[in-house]
Design brief:
Layout (H helix, E strand, L loop, with lengths): L5 E8 L2 H11 L3 E8 L2 E10 L8 E6 L12 E9 L2 H13 L8 E3 L2 E7 L5 E6 L26 E8 L2 H11 L3 E6 L2 E5 L8 E6 L13 E8 L2 H13 L8 E2 L3 E7 L5 E9 L18 H4 L2 H6 L11
Parallel strand pairs: 1-4, 5-8, 9-12, 13-16
Antiparallel strand pairs: 1-13, 2-3, 3-4, 5-9, 6-7, 7-8, 10-11, 11-12, 14-15, 15-16
Length: 318
Amino acid sequence: MDIKGIHHVSAITKYAQDNYDFYTEVMGMRLVKKTVNQDDPSMYHLFYADAKGSAGTDFTFFEIPMLGNTYEGTNSISTTTLRVPDDEALSFWKERLEAEELEIEPIIERFGRRMLFFRDPEGQRLALVSDENNSGIAPGIRWKTSDIPESFAVQGLGPVYFTVPQLEPTEQVLTDILGFTNVDHEDDIHRFSTGEGGTGGEIHVVVDASLPRERPGKGSVHHAAFRVHDREELEKWVDRVQNAGLINSGLVDRHYFQSLYFREPNHILIELATDGPGFDTDEPMERLGESLALPPFLEERREEIEANLKPIHSSHWK
């Protein structure tokens, strides 16, 4: 029962079309699934990932058009990081993001890796992390685009950042229940690792009691998910989480993977998700994300669901 690494991060957008344009045109990621929030099919759920939609590469977004702004603070998933092949790739991305007039910070080194922190057009807190010195979990398969060299392309999710007012409650869940290892820390940032480790298997916990509690809105993160092998193993995790006294969802079948949701004591929503069956269960690999995909239990409502969604069109950014 080992957590294998990061599975996906799910965030919130106010504008699905603008979100699609940015993450496909600017960031060069592949839309591998265009579907709906299974708990509220009136809203899109978009999945961007590597060339094959591999677990550990999915950055997903729920569209909630009526959202206000995010008021940043603690008890939050405060930054999502994306892996790139090496330090040279960071220089490429710095120039590319500057050309888009995005809010970016200078390249820094943290835990022996170079990183570039920036924000997307909605203020989503992001960072690119270099895999130049990575020796852990293998990256995904880079998606080929016309204007991003494959040698610089995004290749999966890097460390997920939690911001909390107190370390101990979150640390206890990560280490005692989920089996992460507290590796080290730099100032008030504590690094936890799981599975084969490296950039694809870490949580960085920022401790800052001076901040107010975050009020989520557009550009915030809803939850972070971590990888388990299969449904049989996930059922054991349901028992472990339940026995630990954490309120949880029980096993939920999301069609493309099975999931378990719970909140740790600092109110961060965590999901455990299986690696499979994968996004090609209802679409051929070469056509992923091209049409609206619905899980079987929503298929009979397709006409109603499609009528309530504003179509997303392929378009050139700016």
